[in-house]
């Protein structure tokens, strides 16, 4: 198939990948006045960026590796992000039950140091060291909104009730929850509002330098048609595919790459009755979280497994499911089995290959590498966390500025994402106000809409006076009007985009309801 050149002017940036990093970079660049095209081969956040543990966190366990810089950067960023998106992100308290026999990874720098001074503690941690780590966690990031660490007596209070009786003491610290897939979509929307072109289900299948600019071949994955888009600079934010894009699409030889480490989660019916999460230290030295999820469920994860091929869709294997059940069973009184799992998801961490010995030990920090031989530059993003996506985009812009000298400075800190222009503790007020204006909304429905759309919930509901005005009901409070909004404003094309990424109503809808929704959406696209 021959592709036609479609543009008269080359774009400033062409970004490959619609995960959190690609969309964050698109937003930042468009806001600085650059002309931007972003190409995502599937749906936005289709890969790793919808499969995370969904935490804005400093990463307590990285302190074990002395990754102080990474932890500080992420801790400071938590509150910046929380302020910009109080609808899709909220503070969460984490309960870390302490037991003197808990096992920790033996090969971390902390372990080695401790074994030197206290050889009898090999593989374990004294309580004072955990308290010290949490003190650092509290102070490194300069908290203003999030409350400090405290010690809990598990023999009284709701936090101890679901746990095995051998746990009598815990530490409780702060981090934040974020709806990861919505974070990506809202960045893409804001980028589009600032002039970026966002192309979903559009794959970059090749790129070549022609007359000092990139000629990039884009394939529409729905129709199969191809076209060429020219760009002055390429940004490779392909996540797990970053190496494949470099080698096979852009044809640049490099020995830099990503190490693919799969992480899986299981979801069960709710296992405890409060809104705090648990941080569990396992007998193998690893940690997992058990987190209140979508009101009626508990999310448990994650695992760390080498994954050889980005094109092999990650799945939570039966062994990983059993591992996570066993992990939870070593803490909770209630025993869960694989029969209790209602959903699983799995993602591949694209970790910068720094030659670290184990998947758990590989650095979680990102690396940016620019290749500018023979004219047109390409910038490659290796690694990175959800929590650091905005900072990563700022760093990318510093590199981009070398090629676009008059580029304006940083601007995204403090600028809300769509629907996020309200106070951090404003969700209850916003929900009450929405119910006053739309009295047919029940509590659960109103809260879901505020958590998804924030101050934009009203624009989505429009002039509806009763539920029937919202058109067809697809189940679980999903109406035709909401689907129209998601298709027109949030790039959704298929039912799976809606029920597993724009929201998680797939947990509550039947396969028949999801199939009916898909049919309706296909028919709307065809019109
Ligand atoms: C199990 C797990 C738990 C995690 N938990 C957390 C957490 O709690 N907090 C945190 O901060 N971070 C967490 N992370 C890390 C975080 O999720 C990732 O670092 C981040 O999502 C990576 O985003 P990305 O945009 O680089 O990659 P991706 O989200 O994978 O996006 C890359 C995109 O590029 C597209 N693409 C690839 N090739 C092409 C092509 N040729 N043409 C067009 N498009 C292409 C893909 O379809 C994909 O959508 C976790 C990761 C995992 C796996």
Based on the model shown, name its key terms.
19 strands, nine-stranded mixed beta sheet, 30% helix, binds flavin-adenine dinucleotide, 14 helices, alpha/beta, 527 residues, ten-stranded mixed beta sheet
Summarize this, please?
The chain is an alpha/beta fold and 527 residues long.
What would you say this structure looks like, in words?
This protein has helices at 20-31, 68-84, 109-117, 127-140, 180-193, 242-249, 318-329, 389-401, 427-437, 443-453, 457-461, 480-489, 495-502, 511-526, and strands spanning 4-5, 11-16, 36-39, 55-56, 89-98, 150-153, 169-178, 197-199, 202-210, 213-220, 226-236, 258-269, 277-281, 287-293, 297-301, 305-306, 341-352, 367-371, 378-382. The protein has 527 residues and is α/β, with parallel strands linked by helices. The strands form 2 sheets. Strands 4, 5, 6, 7, 12, 13, 14, 15, 16 and 17 form a 10-stranded mixed β-sheet that branches. Strands 1, 2, 3, 8, 9, 10, 11, 18 and 19 form a 9-stranded mixed β-sheet that branches. The longest helix has 17 residues, at 68-84. The radius of gyration is 23 Å and the shape is globular. The mean pLDDT is 93. Bound molecules: flavin-adenine dinucleotide. Flavin-adenine dinucleotide is lined by residues 16-22, 39-42, 46-49, 51-55, 57, 203-204, 237-241, 245, 249, 263, 302, 347-350, 384-387.
